[in-house]
Structure formats: structure tokens, C-alpha cells
Amino acid sequence: MTYVVDASVAVKWVLKEIDSDKADALRNAFRSAVHDLISPSVFTIEAAHALTRAERQKRIAVGEARKLLIDVLTTPPRIVPFESLLLQALDISSNMRIGVYDCLYVALAEQVKCELVTADTTMVNALRKDYPFIRALATMP
Fold first, then answer.
1. Using DSSP, how many helices (H) and how many strands (E) does the chain show?
2. CA angle, corner 95, sides to 91 and 100, nearest 5?
3. Residue 42: CB partners within 8 Å, gap ≥ 6?
């Protein structure tokens, strides 16, 4: 099965948090070619941002973000250029009043006709009613 994954899932691959076990299971299934994971090209930037934010919040040591990002990049999802999704994401963002970065993932899942898996409960709560293919990581096996 193909899933769009956002950076919130990838961060759980390298930071042990709630639902990291579910994120790890998804990553392992991808490594074993059971599932295909895809993301817009902003994925790597968002993962890097989340990891440096963890440094600023003192959840990890300064400099650890680099090592953890390299770990994420050992098994990155298949990357789709965000430019091909931008207008659709902009429309979703305007209509739903949510950030365009999140909407790039929604646009990709809509185009590919697959589920979007995220650990971002704010995104799930804001968009799931209109985009039922958005799935909280917590609901994954």
C-alpha cells in the first residue's frame, strides 16, 4: 500500500515519543517493500526544522539534529517535487484556513489517491472531516 507521510512521522523514527513504535513499524514495512512511502520535497526541510526545534527545546543535545536527520535520510520516502502540488495545496490552504506546508501533503495524497499518515493531531482535527483519507499515526497497526 502507498502512504503519504509527513515529517511528524519521520521525526518519531529517531526521537522516542508517543507512537514511535507505530512510526517504526511503518518505516520497517517500507524498508521491506511492504508499503511505499511518498512525500513532497519539503519533507526533508520540515524534518530538519523539527529536529533543530527539539534542540532549541532541549529535548536533544545541540548538534544531535544532524545525526538524527542523517538517520531519517537513510530511508527517506520517495520524494515528489512540491512545485507540482503547489496550486492544489494553495487552494486547500485558502479554503481550509490551514498552512500551505501541511496542505502539500494533503494535495499529494489526493493526487495519488492514498492515505496521508501524520502524527500532527491539529492537522487531523482540522482536515479529516473534509479529507477522510488523512489518518492519525496513532491509528496505524
1. 7, 5
2. 55
3. 82, 101, 104
Q: Which of 120, 113, 30, 109 is nearest to 77 (CA)?
A: 30
Spell out the per-residue pLDDT of the chain, length 141, in tens.
999 999 999 999 999 999 999 999 999 999 999 999 999 999 999 999 999 999 999 999 999 999 999 999 999 999 999 999 999 999 999 999 999 999 999 999 999 999 999 999 999 999 999 999 999 999 999
How far apart CA 5 and CA 34 sit, in angstroms, is 15
Give the list of residues 6+ apart from residue 10 with CB closer than 8 angstroms, or none: 23, 43, 47, 72, 77
Q: Which domains, ranges and CATH numbers included, belong to the chain?
A: 2-139 (3.40.50.1010)
